[in-house]
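Try this one yourself first.
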């Protein structure tokens, strides 16, 4: 059976909003949607992940990107979203296709049930020949609960729909081996291991919340799901189809030839740490998905708070992240179990349960393809031995 061609396109604020006037860049939107119409006519299912609402709403509140605080940005998003969607709607109508808005928060992508509900909505729109435009719901999100950047949001959507390509359109030609303003900087045209270039990815645009670091993180997430990422300057005719045809400069992050399952990709590619535990070295070395999970006797310290069904990060005693898995207990319950290894779990918690903290089937062992997180400082860890 022929696989459906799917592509996710992410567009940054610097392309959508005039940096001085903070108004829509109609010429760019016209070029972009005309190109997406070509893709749709060629049989692609297209999802657009768009920034821009916050920038486009600032004029209504008389604030600027340099001075706006969190509340200003939340209110600006509420003002700017109708402007952005109206622009997309008008231009899409010109090319005879419909759009729909899908607003998400981090919880919609990190909590499994909400993730599946979002997935079902996106697939229903695609099956109805409607192009979803996915945005983070900046009106209600705070720094603690937001995705943080639309690059990783787009990668999450690419995983969700099993897209073959993730296209990130930005204000530069792609990833350079050093700061592109430095003399001798060379464009990295193709790469498999994004970790090699993380040291040269600092910096963000004036209007956006993500820089090249978040694009590398997004590319790594997409790679795990068998999706190739193309990063390029959006200021071009046919900004997407020209990339797919290899007609202009860009960075191509090659998909893994043996992608993870949808379940494993969702487990491993987190947008934020919910919590973590440190287990002893022997237990860490013995971890095997489908064979051995995490038991309460393994735990040495806990970093929370987290709740049951959160995905937690599992570190060894050397501070190396070894695995991620779905927790069967909250951080408080985990501590109670770990500090009382000989007591029946049912008596400790007041309900019938086994004491396995992370079941073997809900565990993914990290390898060199994954970008690992740093272990929390020791003064932020709750030690199991009282």
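Now uncover the answer:
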């Amino acid at each position: 059976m022929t696989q459906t061609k799917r592509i996710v396109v992410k567009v940054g604020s610097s392309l959508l909003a005039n940096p001085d006037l903070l108004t829509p860049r109609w010429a760019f939107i016209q070029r972009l949607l005309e190109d997406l119409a070509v893709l749709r006519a060629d049989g692609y299912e297209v999802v657009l992940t768009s920034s821009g609402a916050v920038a486009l709403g600032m004029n209504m509140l008389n604030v600027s990107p340099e001075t706006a605080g969190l509340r200003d940005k939340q209110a600006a998003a509420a003002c700017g979203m109708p402007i952005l969607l109206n622009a997309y709607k008008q231009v899409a109508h010109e090319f005879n296709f419909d759009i729909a808005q899908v607003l998400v928060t981090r919880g919609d992508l990190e909590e499994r049930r909400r993730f599946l509900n979002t997935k079902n909505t996106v697939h229903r729109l695609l099956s109805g020949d409607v192009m979803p435009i996915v945005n983070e719901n900046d009106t209600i999100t705070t720094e603690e609960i937001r995705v943080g950047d639309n690059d990783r949001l787009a990668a999450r959507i690419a995983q969700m729909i099993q897209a073959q390509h993730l296209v990130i359109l930005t204000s530069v030609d792609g990833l350079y081996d050093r700061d592109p303003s430095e003399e001798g900087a060379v464009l990295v045209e193709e790469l498999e291991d994004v970790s090699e270039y993380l040291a040269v990815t600092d910096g963000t645009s004036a209007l956006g919340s993500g820089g090249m670091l978040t694009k590398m993180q997004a590319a790594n997430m997409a790679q795990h799901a068998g999706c190739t990422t193309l990063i390029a300057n959006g200021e071009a005719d046919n900004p997407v189809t020209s990339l797919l045809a290899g007609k202009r400069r860009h960075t191509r992050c090659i998909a893994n030839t043996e992608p993870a399952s949808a379940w494993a990709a969702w487990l491993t590619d987190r947008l934020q740490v919910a919590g973590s535990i440190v287990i002893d070295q022997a237990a860490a070395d013995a971890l095997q998905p489908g064979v051995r999970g995490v038991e309460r006797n393994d735990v040495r310290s806990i970093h929370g708070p987290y709740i049951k069904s959160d995905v937690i990060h599992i570190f060894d005693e050397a501070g190396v992240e070894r695995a991620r898995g779905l927790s069967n207990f909250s951080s408080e319950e985990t501590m109670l179990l770990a500090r009382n290894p000989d007591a029946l779990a049912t008596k400790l918690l007041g309900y019938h349960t086994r004491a396995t903290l992370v079941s073997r089937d809900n565990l993914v062992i990290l390898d060199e393809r994954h970008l690992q997180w740093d272990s929390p400082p020791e003064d932020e860890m709750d030690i199991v031995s009282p």
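Discussion: Residues 220 and 370 are 7 Å apart (CA to CA). The chain has two domains: 6-265, 273-383.
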